[in-house]
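Example 3.
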Amino acid sequence: MIPELGHVALIIAFVLAIGLAVVPMWGAARRDVAAMNMAPSLAVGVTVFVAVAFALLAVSFLQDDFSVAVVAANSNSLLPPIFKFSALWGNHEGSLLLWVLILSGWMTAVATFSRGLPLVMVARVLSVMGMVAVGFLAFSLLTSNPFERLLPNTPLDGNDLNPLLQDPGLIIHPPLLYMGYVGLSVPFAFAIAALMGGRLDASWARWSRPWTNVAWGFLSLGIMLGSWWAYYELGWGGWWFWDPVENASFMPWLMGTALVHSLAATEKRGVFRSWTVLLAIFAFSLSLLGTFLVRSGVLTSVHAFAADPERGLFILIFLALVVGGSLLLYALRAPSVASRVNYSGVSRESLLMINNLVFTVSTIVVLLGTLFPLIMDAFSLGKYSVGPPYFNAVFVPLMALVMPFMAVGPLSRWREDTTRRWLHELLVPGLGVLVVAIVLAFLGSDDFNLWIALAVLLAGWVALGVVKDLWRRIATGVDGGLTWRRLTPSFLGMTLAHLGFAAVVLGAVVVTQENEERDLRMAVGDVETLGAYRFELMSLGQQAGPNYLADQAVFEVRRDQELIAVLVPEKRRYSASGQIMTEAAIDARLWRDLYIALGEPIGEQAWAVRLQYKPMVRWLWLGALMIGLGALVTAFDRRYRSQRSNVPAAQQGVAAVAG
Amino acid sequence: MQAKKFIPLVAFAVLAGLLFRGLSIDPTELPAARLGQPFPDFAQTELISGRQISVSALAERPALVNVWATWCYSCRVEHPYLLTLAEQGVPIYGLNYKDEPAKAREWLAQLGDPYQLNVSDVEGSVGLDLGVYGAPETYVLDAAGHIAHRHVGVLDEAVFKRDFSRWFPAVAPPAVAAGPEGGQ
Amino acid sequence: MKPALKALMRAMICGQLWLAPVVLAVIETYEFSSPDLELRYHQLSQELRCPKCQNQNIADSNAPIARDLRVVLYEQLEQGATDDEILAFMVARYGEFVRYRPGVDRNTVLLWAAPGLLLTLGAVGLLFHFRQRPSARSTDLTEAEQAEITRLLGELRD
């Protein structure tokens, strides 16, 4: 009964979504206030029924209702309850439902927080989001129904959740990621609404900004969690593989980064209008493309759901309609008069333009690399693979390129500035950082490591620029005293995010360059030294878990005779599926991780063991965390709270520039 | 100015076309790297007779070279069809890949031997030279002794008629299905 | 056969059905005759793709073919083969597919050149954009122009 009710709820949501897609849009065209006013209630209606469907599916999982196909395929009676719940989105059908749930959540949020916006705008925005919801609900109901049942041959128990997914990481990573992916539909909807209304002024940008920042922030957090989860779960100590599915989440992020910055320029200075609209369209398009890549089987990936070209075709058609439609709208309605270029070649605007360029090129490069095997195959030019060696080789220089501009950015002036002033701001601190960089590059290894020197230089420079700006704002109080009043959430968020970026770069370079790893056979009593750390295998044993049996190895790690940590890596055998999983043991500190993973047993008394010393690897995720939090913080800025509809920021003078 | 605005749309159309084409391509399918090249030479023992053989032993052309092993479940599935093909006069050479010769001999004794001869590749070195990455695989040795085609996976009637008929046009499909697994 | 069914059949090779791969820490305990060889082993094993897996390098995969290729890699390194020779050996048997760092050939030239090309194109575009523009000052209204407008507006109102 419950699954059927869930199915019905989903159908009702679908019908309401159709209403949302059509009625307010029609109302906006006819200026019919009643029709437009239906938008918020329709949005809430969709949300309620999708939430009901989601809740009922969750109940099916928690109650071990194996007559529901997805429950039977992905759950098991021995599974701990929290994983029974998260198994809901560990598969294609359920994750799609999560997608729609989060989309409707964003719809309701937009409906709630848009009191000050013109009704026409709100109606159009919600309608566009409704259209997206219609597509996904149709996809779900027609090809990927989560409520499909296995009757009358109901299995006695389920297949179990893949042990890799039986982890807290699965509980948060997809929801956060989807918050980001799906959240990019909001700036997309705003862009479409603005194109339709022919109103691409600064107010559109101001309304979009908080939504964009929050969505992008969540996407940053989602990606960060994915990387961290892979690190501790997969047992090889890696944190990014440039796998097509990873790239599918990274491309919207890259485009989103460009969008976040471009929106700032459009809001404050009215420039880059066409660029920004296009970026908003592309960011969400890349989200949809990602959905396609992950679920269609067109690319091979360790992360992909079981491939089904039929489903792929559906998504492709949907993609063609949404993206093709929006790009057609852009071609027809984008401003034919370019925004007035009232800024010089040396200005904050031009720096942001360079930022746009580099991030757009990065996105294209990642897209090209990801699709290259497909392109070659489609033209029968052979089977190729493009992996980490290629991506690292091309992506790293691009990021390095953008960093000096990032250092100057916060300190630069709008409209017109001089390179002389920039040099003055950053040269002396730059030299200081250079000295530090060279010194640090010698630390930790006997040879001078150029990459580390470069990373310290660039990251340090960015950090210095940020700190200088921070200091300047604090130190401009009345009578030369200190003041906190200029530290707006907008500014603090930017500071945090830029510092986070510098931290990520530094962490990535250091851990790649200074990583130490040893694979060897170890028996009880064996000792191995890695750098300054002494690893001793103390004992071997076994431990039973709720749904698995684990072989354990107890290690003591010492440094200068002092006991640093006791690490217990495991090899687990899950009873339901028989699958074997490795659980790495990690001693995590700010400046380094110690990482031990078990391989295969060698005889009765020994194991193949991998020991790793990973300096500054945490900086990767702490930096990404700072980026995400920084983005979220900016949404609290006062000027977004009271959204006024007709005061373009350019008229707000100094306050706008400072904010 | 206006034409410039259509560039993103056109670029997207190209992308969509590519993705559509991609839906009908199987990204995991890997053609043999040695396509068109002569079968790599080797020095191994023949599985049943124990005599030393090299590539010259694969004399009948065109012929199939079937990579199989007792640990491979799918090989068991395709075996009846191989017997059928052998009955119809298709020369099949076997490459017993990374297997135990005694087990392999017993397997053939029990289930029937469709092979003209079997190369015992215990170490897998012949397989490595060929570019084998899993069993079962079936190669076509054409009239010139070159590798003309490779099929990865179970060989059955549908696959044979679709992909192999070029080299074996005379083979007629069997009147009665060979067994529950035979034919699709 | 439908591609999905084909994929299923392929998954049945080796007798195991992978709907999602289980990645184990694949740890080989080789003794290398020099640390340089060990370093090259790690690098190359991450550059070589497992021919049958779902996008994994031979270092991380526990498929039998990955293990065999690791052994071959180890042996060839110990025998003194150069990186190029080893890659050529693998490509001859498994095709370009097996290289994660695409070699530079007629087909991949555009792939490797793309980042530089795109950046240059973009930079040229930017320069063009700035060359064409008048400087910032000229778009401001001068005081005389501002006064003129105020006067005209005043006239309109009357």
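The domain at 34-164 of chain B is CATH 3.40.30.10 (Glutaredoxin). The radius of gyration of chain B is 21 Å.
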